[in-house]
What does this fold into?
Amino acid sequence: ETGVTQTPRHLVMGMTNKKSLKCEQHLGHNAMYWYKQSAKKPLELMFVYNFKEQTENNSVPSRFSPECPNSSHLFLHLHTLQPEDSALYLCASSQHMNTEAFFGQGTRLTVV
Amino acid sequence: GIQVEQSPPDLILQEGANSTLRCNFSDSVNNLQWFHQNPWGQLINLFYIPSGTKQNGRLSATTVATERYSLLYISSSQTTDSGVYFCAVDLYSSASKIIFGSGTRLSIRP
It folds into this structure.
């Protein structure tokens, strides 16, 4: 248990669906991150939030929409995804930007 | 060019063997972490080690920042050590992005 919780753990969605991934941390951290891990690829940073403000959008398509209502919660809203978006989506948090990061268990997303 | 490179990409060992995993990086480092990803996808923190040497049980790590590499040592391997080991680096040149290496897949045979 790292103190970072992601829900759901598994998600299957159609290309026309809208769904959201949730990440919650109770570590008192100020920075939160979304990463994507596709098969046989390194983890790719998607978004960074620092004190609830987005500081990084790593050229992510607009069908992925992040939301950070407070320092403890981070969402990733999904709509009109493509099959190639199927991947493991990992959330992380750290005390400050780019200090030691702790990861959630991930959401394994399948787009059909 | 490649900024974070891990070797070897795959490693198969018998239980009880020792192993050394390497992470090379292309610039000065702000911080460096080693993670173990278990078969369920969870990334488990092993070391936060921008420089120096740390030990935790059978695992130890050394980062030589001036020579731009870090090593992870696993002694007396157990089958539960199997999985993928990642180093993640925040480089001065990466505009504060943490970059992951492509990982070393370790398989420990009983």
